[in-house]
Amino acid sequence: MLMLDPVQTVACGGLFLIAGYAIRARVPLLSRFSIPAPVIGGLLVALALLACRQWKVTPVHFDTAFQQPLMIAFFTAIGFNASTSLLKVSGRQIVLFLGLATGLAVVQNLVGIGLATAFGLPPLFGVITGSVTLAGGPATGLAFAPLFTQAGVQGAPSVALANAMAGIICGSVIGAPLATMLIERLKLRTPQSLDVAGSAPAMPPPAPAAAAANAASAEEQTYAGLRSFVLILLAMGIGAWISGGLGALGLTLPSYIGAMLVGALIRNVDDHLGWFGLSLRSIDIIGNASLSLFLVVALMNLHLWDLTGLAMPLLVNLGVQSIVVVAFCCWPLWWLMGRDYDAAVMASGFVGFMLGTTANAMAVMSSLTERFGPAPRAFLVAPIVGAFLIDFTNAIVITFFINGWK
């Protein structure tokens, strides 16, 4: 058996990550459904190991010691994006949209628990197939999987991956037809003028820091990236103390919560006082790279054979959850978000990230606007909620259910 240490494991993950991008570029179906490249690359390894297991061979062992730090780095970067100033731009609709998404996350868990109980499975199985992997996606599912394993859910990482991947496909397939039906049946039209009172607010002008970064020297850009990297590490370090303190109080929380909160605090202090000079571009690059490597390493080490016997519960759960999300979009989301063209496009994005990921939501919304015209309010509200705000509220919802049913 080939034994890979943590560095070699991440390096191997990087190779399969690049392979995932190459495969997606050459397979249109994968691009159409916005299947993440890390998932493609990681699944290649997981499927290969599954085949080897049938032959009673274990060719390689991965040391995933760096998996958790990479995961925490990604969610810390998410925290740095949680700016209260963003809520001032179409704030009422953002708060309302977030409230609807959070409410549906609770419903997803209740539905999951009910179906799990009907199949004779533990209630927490319904939670991990609820908002953990549907509203949360594969990253949140894999981040919470160790907690579910400790609570007695067998094969939690594999269940999380399977449900998240199926949700991504459903979100991509359902979102656009739902919005198209609303647009065509109700003869909705894109706003002709964005200056009319009550219409979508103007997009904020590009931040001066972003314009300055374009003209910055290579040295300045390097320093901005280094500063961002150090701030993320600082947030992770302080966040570890906070998470440890919350754990000492008896709360079951994912390890990234403390770092995520510290990142949000640093961002909002910088917005008001300018103490840190954050480079959000650098933070996003570091966060996205950490997410990609975390996902591919986590998936390479998945035990897909743990899914034996769970196919039917997973399929029934996904079918019912999809119906619930569609019903939620038709009412109350459609009515509360304005019953107009932007609301229809927002509904498609809502399906995308409540069953899959924000990437699904953006892909579905883009396909609609290419056909029917721009929807500026939808592209302001949905990404802000889907990209990071729902991660905060969903973590609270998941933690409540874990502590209530453990």
Protein architecture, described:
This protein has a domain at 78-192 and 309-405. It contains 16 helices and 2 strands. It has a two-stranded parallel ribbon. The radius of gyration is 21 Å and the shape is globular. By secondary structure, it is mainly α.
Task: Specify the number of helices.
Answer: 16
The span between the termini is 37 Å
**Strand portion, in percent?**
under 5%
How many runs of DSSP E, i.e. beta strands?
2
Q: What structural class should be given to the helix and strand makeup?
A: mainly alpha
Strand order across the largest sheet: 1-2
Pfam family, one: Glt_symporter
Function: Catalyzes the sodium-dependent transport of glutamate.
Protein name: Sodium/glutamate symporter
Keywords: Amino-acid transport, Cell inner membrane, Cell membrane, Ion transport, Membrane, Sodium, Sodium transport, Symport, Transmembrane, Transmembrane helix, Transport
What does the secondary structure layout of this molecule look like, with pairings?
Elements: E1 2-4, H1 6-26, H2 28-32, H3 37-54, E2 60-62, H4 67-80, H5 91-118, H6 123-128, H7 137-150, H8 156-185, H9 208-215, H10 218-248, H11 257-273, H12 280-300, H13 311-336, H14 341-355, H15 358-372, H16 376-405
Parallel strand pairs: 1-2
Helix pairs in contact: 1-3, 1-12, 3-12, 4-10, 4-11, 4-12, 5-13, 5-16, 7-8, 8-13, 8-14, 8-15, 10-11, 10-12, 13-14, 14-15, 14-16, 15-16
